[in-house]
Amino acid sequence: MNQIGYIALLLGFVMALYATLALSLGTWQRYPQLVKSGRRAAWSVVGLVGLGVVCVQYALLSSDFSVRYVVEVTSREMEWWYKIGAMWGGQEGSLLLWSLILAVCTALLLVQTRKMQPSELAPWIIVAMTAGTAFFLAMCTLVVNVFQPMAVVPQNGKGLNPLLQNPGMMIHPPILYTGYVTTIAAFGFAFAALVSGRLDNSWVRLARRWILTSWVFLTVGNFLGGQWAYVTLGWGGYWAWDPVENAAIMPWFINTALLHSVMIQQRRGIFKVWNMSLAIIAYALSLFGTFLTRSGVLSSVHAFGESTLGPYFMIWIGVVLIVGFGLVFMRLPELKSENKLDGLLSRETSFLLNNILFFLAVAFMLWGTVSPLVSQITTGVKTEVKSGYFVQTVVPVLLGIVFLMGIGPLIAWRRASFDSLTKSFWIPAAFAFAGAAFMFAFGIRNMIGVVGFAIAIFTATTVGLDYYKGVRARRRHTEGRILPAVTTLVKRNRPRYGGLLVHLGIVIITVVIVASSVYKASTIQVGDKTFKIDETQGVTAKLGETMTIKGVHEYKVKLDRIEAIGSPLKMRFQAYLSVQKDGQPQEPLLPAAEMYLATQQPNTVVFIRVDPLEDLYISMPFAGIEAARDKDGNPIANQDGKPVLEGAAFQMWANPLMLWSWVGLMITIAGLLIAIWPDPTPVRAPATQKVGDKLKSGVKEKEAVSA
Amino acid sequence: MVGERLFQVPQQVTPAQSGGDSGALFGWVLSICLAGIVVAIVARPLVLAEVGKGRRKSDGLMSEAGRARLEGLQEQAQAERQSLTDLEFDREIGIIEERDYDEFKEASDDKLAGLSLRISRLESQLQRANQARVGIAGPQTPKTVARNSHSNSNSNSLGPVVSPGSVAAPSPSRLSRKGPSESDRLHLKAAVKEKLKCSECATPFKPGDRFCQHCQAPLPILCLNCGKEITENDRFCAKCGAAVNT
What we know:
The complex is a heterodimer of chains A (707) and B (246). Chain A is α+β, with helices and mostly antiparallel strands and 707 residues long. Chain A has helices at residues 2-28, 32-61, 68-73, 80-85, 91-112, 121-143, 167-196, 202-232, 243-268, 272-295, 310-330, 347-379, 387-407, 418-441, 447-475, 482-492, 494-518, 660-676, 689-706, and strands at 523-526, 529-532, 539-542, 546-550, 554-566, 570-581, 584-589, 592-596, 601-605, 607-609, 614-619, 625-627, 645-656. Chain A has 19 helices and 13 strands. In chain A, a hairpin with a 3-residue loop joins strand 5 (554-566) and strand 6 (570-581). In chain A, the strands form 2 sheets. In chain A, strands 1, 2, 4, 5, 6, 7, 8 and 9 form an 8-stranded antiparallel sheet that branches. In chain A, strands 3, 10, 11, 12 and 13 form a 5-stranded antiparallel sheet that branches. Chain A is globular. Chain B is an all-alpha fold and 246 residues long. In chain B, 55% of the residues lie in helices and 2% in strands. Chain B has helices spanning 2-6, 15-18, 20-48, 51-54, 61-92, 98-137, 143-146, 172-177, 182-193; strands at 221-222, 229-230. In chain B, strands 1-2 form a two-stranded antiparallel ribbon. The longest helix of chain B has 40 residues, at 98-137.
């Protein structure tokens, strides 16, 4: 199977390269047979990559330790679902996952472009996809090799990193990668428009669904990544401004900007160069994220370590940028705007401002991410960028974007007046000020918190107001009935009202982020002493001692016992803590610490007591477990031979509103589904069809006469 | 290093797991068969038709450029219709001033009418070009015509996507047969604006018309691209350089 898998991938690389060349040459020189052959080659890449993945999965599931990759990421004891997920647990396999998703997207585009109008774009879109696939297949066959054999076959593998043995592992990487990969599709449409010279709005219209798809996958992928970090890493948070985290969110920002600016192009025929540029940058940033994870140039919890892939990725990113912007430059005269902005106060300008802010956020993040590299190259010393830099630069910009989310929907297209703005926004502004005053009155003085909540109230109110105005207008047509008014309103303008729901979901997530960042409770009292948990490695509690933490509720947590549980795979120390919430007894808290025996890697099993108002988050680092020791300092064992444990260090936080982030995500996805749902519009007729039909009928008439 | 990797095909090192040399040989045979099948599938279109013979003749630069331009205009018309829909919606929910609404509505209507006119002209031009080609090469020549005929029922001369309730621009033939609808009025308005009137009776006419539909007076021949008057002997417009397909 391993030979077949390797040959399939190698052949896939050759076919992807051939498809790129055949489609380019065939389209350029008008050889339809060559184009047909190129499309077949593209289909064959889909099948070959699929076969390669099947072979890798077979090796992983059958614990074939003659393959080095299988040894690195699996062990016989691992559950079968983690063996499947282990394919993307290492460098080589994750590149193969990229290739697989690319191949699937290529297949979907092959179907979409079969009878697509304008037909000029079709082959060039596939060229962009197969060129990308060829690059990734070259990486996973010629530079690294997922089927690389072992010189000596071991009895067992090293097993997957304990942090990766989490349900998040099965979902988060494929979803995030799909988000990355689908940016190539949007790039493919832009590239096709630039090469073919079809620079009207057709590429934007056709790419819109792909941009939305990429956006939703990047949203969910980043969200799940944050959740995974929250429940796995044990430091009480979900976002650490890690280079790879930044690299994952940057394409999301650019995609969001693109999603908004294409709406302007579709209506007004402006921002053409800008949209092309955003599509190119989104793809380049996706590649940049992959480069950071794989090159080993920056240290990150997500990185795969040192590898030889970095230079290849740098070259490929360079090729994408040079080809993309080179084409934009060549086509500049044809990318002139069809209209001008009618007024400075308009929805178009609010979208433009939102685009600038997104770009600014990405610029700040990019600089914060790469500046250690730059400083290392220029001064020889790798400087560290603290999270404070990102909080001071990116967070205000993001709050500005959330504010614009409120402005945009209620400002008129083309031109708005101060009078109409006053009419539209006095209610949201009043709500926002009232909310801020309310918080101030109740002693909430943190500036970011107050401003953040006020902006969230403003934006949420505008969403509500927009729906209200729409429903009020529709009720005139539905004899005053509300439900038909709502449904017809949404049906008539899915993108608008779906988009508003997405805004609402993002506002809810923003509230959660602000609340959990600013109002997180982290002060623990043990006896007479008070500890700030973020400044310690954990607060030590002996058996029977009580720790107190006060967030929205007051929790008294008492350490009852710690048990050592052995297994062939790992040693587990299970803590049992009884807890009282505002004096009321609750179910016990069960954090644990583990040591994986094969790799000697510790792992923290976090325990989270979820509540609509706040999460009680507790973790027990392995290093903080205290065993009873004799006079010589040796651990004392009980009758079963297990260590006698007398205490442990705990980390504990009360994180407000965390559960609501899921509500925000669900609303976001629901809104997106509404926005993306296809309208029952007729199939587009090609430009020449009418002419052709007339012509055909004319010919038939002539034939009938002659007969 | 890449070259070394190319030939670094995995070798099975433990006979117990791999099934020994026979297993490896079997793997190689299967791989070669796989490669052969893939190459055969991919190369089939090239083998069946010689590349040189299979080369598609251009439909003519005029025709291709015209089609692209027509589709571009249709996209513009679609964008303008979307703009109009948004304008109506903004008015419905009361976020646009009435004077701004009137100004933009008129501008959009005018632009849409102008676009309809240009689309109609270009369609006629393409029709004549196609007719000329069919006369030479037979009815199957323009492949793009035969393709997608299933969507004929929606054939609207204006829109790439025809949303229900949107204002469809009339084809020239519809204009002459039916009564003056809203879109016809816009169409005529644009025609008047561009001074397309019969010199004898001032009846507006469409580009391509040879005789006035009211007084039968001969009409000037206009370039279908820019509207400049041309003669029957002209092959290209002196103003814009477009080919004259009369």
